[in-house]
Specification:
6 helices; globular
Length: about 280
Amino acid sequence: MLNSTAGTAYPARAAGTGDAPRAATASVEPWGPAAPPPSPEDLPGPGRVAVWLLSLSANLAPAAVADGMLDAEEARRAARFKDAGLRERYVTSHVGLRTLLGGYLGVDPAAVALTRELCGMPDCEKPHGRPALAEHTGLHFSLSHSEDAAMVAVARSVVGADIESARARRSGVDLTRALHPDERAAIAALPESLRDEAFLSCWVRKEAYLKGIGTGLPGGIRTHHVGLAEGLAPAGSPVPAGWALVDVAAPPGYHAAVAVRTPAGDTVAASGRPLVTLRHLTLG
């Protein structure tokens, strides 16, 4: 499992390598030590993924001051939120995203041009796929937020990220039935005390992968097998061909994962173990 020491790189390990099922929660301090925004020298190299965590409640004030950096589409989306809290979280997460991307590219965060790639669904040519950099095709990112947590993953390969609050998923509806049959079986085989955690670990991997392929949840929650987090998955649990899935340490009460595409010849594909650097961003 990944630790959350700022600036440290950790190799991913294949699901199912543990000797016995165990809880997958990380013993980390909430959010951990802060790191300054990145610079172009910090760009992740091949086979590496830079992951940043952002506490939304702790950064509402500086984000509100900096909300002028959002582009017209982001401003329109923010204005659609009738709930002030949801609007503040959206603004804060996107200010954080632009702060990171601007740092990596060495430009004013307001000058970062964002676009949408074509949808990843078959026979759909509409531009509602992965968010992307309009002028820098060699750098990829993914943003996710849930309750007080936002997470951004940046890589040279296509990447999807997801973070979820355990509390946000307690809706009273059993979503386990929506998963792939083998994932449902793996969860059912665990002690009952681990099943909620196993489900959430699977769900963040699922969303990260579906973001990565550019479909989002309509791409098939039941169709694609991504498995459970390391230590909870059965030995030899498969992942989608051409992708690496990494369970990321998150603050208590959250689960997180990233999915990284591994094209032929890529360092990630050669090793199967992408290195994840986890840092904690503070705005202002």
